Each structure stands twice: as structure tokens, then as C-alpha cells.
Amino acid sequence: MWAIYAGIALIALAAGLVSGYFYRKNVMEKKLGQTDEVIQNLLEDAKHKAEDKRKEAVLEAKEEIIRLKNELDKEVRDRRAEVSRQERRVNQREESLDKKFDNLEAREESLNEKYAAAEQLEAQAQELHDKQHAELERIAGLSAEEAKAILVDRVQKDAYHDAAVMVREIEAQAKDEAEKKARNIVALAIQKCAADHVAETTVSVVALPNDDMKGRIIGREGRNIRTLETATGVDLIIDDTPEAVIISAFDPVRREIARIALEKLIMDGRIHPARIEEMVEKAKREVDQQIREAGEQAVFETNLHSIHPELVKLLGRMRYRTSYGQNVLNHSIEVSHLAGVMAAELGCDVTLAKRAGLLHDIGKAIDHEVEGTHVTIGAELAKKFHESDKVINCIMAHHNDVEPTCVEAVLVQAADAISAARPGARRESLENYIKRLEKLEAIAYTFEGVDSCYAIQSGREVRIIVKPEDVNDAGTLILAKEIAKKIEAEMEYPGQIKVNVIRETRSVEFAK
Q1: Rounded CA separation 34/11 (Å)
Q2: How many CB atoms lie within 10 A of CB 176?
Q3: CA distance 398 to 360
Q4: How far apart are CA 222 and CA 343, in angstroms?
Q5: Which of 241, 298, 380, 424 is most buried, by the most CB atoms less than 10 A from its CB?
Q6: Nearest to residue 463, comparing CAs of 475, 486, 485, 479?
Q7: Could you give the CA distance from residue 346 to residue 350 in angstroms, rounded to a whole number?
Q8: Which SS3 state, helix, strand or coil, does residue 390 take?
Q9: Cβ contacts of residue 304 below 8 Å, gap of 6+?
Q10: What's the CA gap between 256 and 453, in Å, rounded?
């Protein structure tokens, strides 16, 4: 029974499903038909709208074309009007130029007529001038060139004579006045500067309280004297001289340090190597202080400022330096004063002259330690410490190594000569000085090929002229070296000596 009911239910369900399917299919077909109709309507509306848009665009394009055409027509009209105006202006200018050209032609014709008339007048004047010139030559009996030459020759002779007389008078007057003025200036400079001179030697003598002190200075097996000599760089001479010890050294600073140290040791009484080294150090500090004070005192005496501290220290070292017995620091101060006085009298730069005079021998402070002449060393020091070019030239020129480029350099030369020539300034006698120069020349004459020889610059240079047929150019170099070596071996001299060998060839002929 239940099976029948289930079969009926299944059949009813299947029938419901089939009827539902067909119903839904019918409904869907109706909806599709309605959708096609809507789409067709939309297409029709789109076509109508597109056609309307196209017509509107065509109308707008036509209106834009008409507007642009109108603007173009207006611009063409404006251009044509401007061209017309330009044509009128050009025509007016052409007419104006035509009128000016006609006027120029008229003026040119007038000028040509005037030029022809002027040429005619010039020809008449030239003809008249020639007639007058010929008449003057006939009357004078001379041509124009001859008369001009005579006149020029006479004027020239008169002018030469008058000029020669005037030059002679001016030269004589200038010479008299210059000599008188120079004597007055030099005399005034010497009168205003009277410096003391102390002649020093290369040895110092230290007094001893008794002769027993010599043994204590020597020490056991000479250890004390060796320590003192090593520490100071000097030679101690202990001989039979009663109650005295001699300190010998070429360097005056070392000699002064040794003297002070030895005097302190003698006063202290305790003499042994450790005490010697201690006293030498104290003496060095004391001498350094004295050097600094001496340099500052020299700057103060000459009233100079802004000198580099190292140069001031080098000036102080010159207190212990002598040249031919003349104290170099005192000499430099004196040269500074002399140059300043002469510069003031001549209206030159007083400060420059005094500064150059004080520094002119600065190279002598270290010429024992550096190769070269004191002139070259001094110039290098001045350059190093930024002295002016004029000061450097004064230093270089004070022994005529270079040409002076300013008046102050000449004044320093003169002041240096005055200071060195003062009676008592230099210990060396004239006889010894001449002997040294003669020996210098004699050494040069010992070499073959030497024609003549001259010792110049106070023996600082020897100039040798050789025979050109005996010595060639290469031989001059060898000869100069050989002479320099022989001078070094046979002579004693401060600084250095320049050996200058000269070879020249001259051809002489006489026209007969």
C-alpha cells in the first residue's frame, strides 16, 4: 500500500517538475523577446543622437571656417594697406634723394671751377716765387743749398762753442761744490760719531791666585784640562808664565765661555769633570744672555725697531768678533751712525741708511760656521729674515761685490771706509797689509802663463790676466783651482779669497 502511495508521489513530482520547466521556459522566452525590443529601441535612439551630433559638428565647422576666412581677409587688407604706406614712403625718399643728387652735382661743378681757379693762382705764385728765388741767388752769388749749409755750419759752431764753455764751467763748479760738500758731510759725520775701539786678539789670559792652581786645572792624568777643552772647544795653554793660563780659540764666543767657566772654577775651588761641565753650562747661559743684551743695546743705540729677534741675537754675537783688531759690533754701530748722519745731510732715507749700516757686517757673526764670504752670508740672512731689497743691496754692495742701486748703499760704503780708516781702528799696520797683498800676487806669478796680477778689495780678491797663447779657456779653470789651493796652503787670512782668472785675445792692425 505504501509502495503505491510512493509511486503516485513520484509520478506527481515528475509531472510537477515537467510542468515547471515548461512554464519557466515560456517565461524566459517572453523576457528575451522584450530584451531584444529594448536593445533595438536603444540602437535607434543612438543613431538619431549621432546624426544630430554630426549635423551640429558640421555646422560648427562651417561657422569656424567662415570666421577664419573673415579674419584672414581682414589681415590681408591690413597688409595691403601697410604695403601701400611703405610704397608711398619709398617714393617720397626717392624723390628726396633725386633732389639731393641734383644739388650735389651742382656743388661739384662749382667746386671744380674753384679748384681750377686755385690751380691757376698757385701756378702764378710758383712762377713769381721762382723768379724771386733766381733773383736772390743772382744778387748773393750763392745757391740756396750753399747758403743754408753756411748758415747751419756757423750756427752749429757757435752752439758747440757756447755749450762746451757752459759744460766746462758747470763741471768745474759742480766739482768744487761737490768736493766741498762731501768734505763737510764726512767731517760732520766723523765729528758726531766718536766710537771707542778695543783691539782684541785670538787669546785670553786668565789670572791665577797661585801656581798650584795650574796642577788642579790639569787634574790627575790631565782629565780636568781635557774635559774643559772638550766642553768648550778651546785650547788651554799652561806654560811657565807665572800665575796665568792662556785660552786660545779662533771662535771668540767659545773663548769667552771658557774664560768665564775657568774663572768660576778658580773662585769655587772645586775642579773636577762634573763641576767643569756644570760651570761650562752656566757660562754658556751667561754668554747667551750677554749676547742678547748686546744686540738689544746696539738696536737701542741706533734707534732702530722691528729688527727680527734672530738678527738681534746675531748682532750680539758680533760683540765677540774682531776684524783686524776692530770690534765688529762697535764698528757696525759706528757705520750706522755715520751713514745716518750723511743721509740726513743729503736728504736721503736716514732709517734705511742706519739699518743697512748696522746690518752690513751681520755675516761675520757666523762666517766661522758657514761657507762663503761675510757679504754673501749677510745678504742671505737679510733675505731669510725679510729685510727690504734696498737693505740687501746695501749689504751686497758695501765691498763692491755688486753695483749699488740706491744712494744709501753708497753712504754705507763710505761709512764703512771711514770707520775702518779711523786711526787706531785696525791693529794691522800698513807694512803687514802690503806684505800680505804682495804675497798674494807673488803666489799667482809663480804659475806659468800669468801675464799680470792684481790684489784688490783689501786682499779679498786676486785678478789674474793670463797670456792667451800660453793658456787656453779650459786651462783657466785648472789654473784658478791650483792658485786657490796654493793660497790656502801658504797664507793665513780671514774669510775667503776670490781667484779670478781672465783670458782675452786681442787683434791689432795698423792702417798705413
Answers
A1: 35
A2: 10
A3: 7
A4: 58
A5: 298
A6: 479
A7: 9
A8: helix
A9: 336, 351, 354, 355, 358
A10: 40
Question: Please, are residues 388 and 406 in contact by the beta-carbon 8 Å criterion?
Answer: no
- Of 344, 350, 323, the residue nearest 494 (C-alpha): 323
Collapsing DSSP to helix, strand or coil, 236 comes out as strand
Distance CA 314, CA 363 (A): 9
The reported pLDDT for the residue numbered 199 is 39
Q: Is 31 exposed, middle or buried (0-12, 13-18, 19+ CB in 10 A)?
A: exposed
Contact by Cβ (8 Å): 206, 245: yes
φ, ψ (nearest 5 deg) of residue 463: -105, 125
Specify the length of the chain in residues. Answer: 512
- How high is the pLDDT of residue 425? 56
Give φ, ψ of 233 to 5 degrees: 75, 30
Residue found under cell 763641576: 275
Inter-residue contact 243 to 211 (CB < 8 Å): yes
Q: ∠ CA 15-20-22 to the nearest 5 degrees?
A: 100
Tell me which DSSP letter residue 156 carries.
H
| pTM flag (> 0.85) | no
- DSSP category for residue 299: H
d(CA 191, CA 211) in angstroms, rounded, equals 48
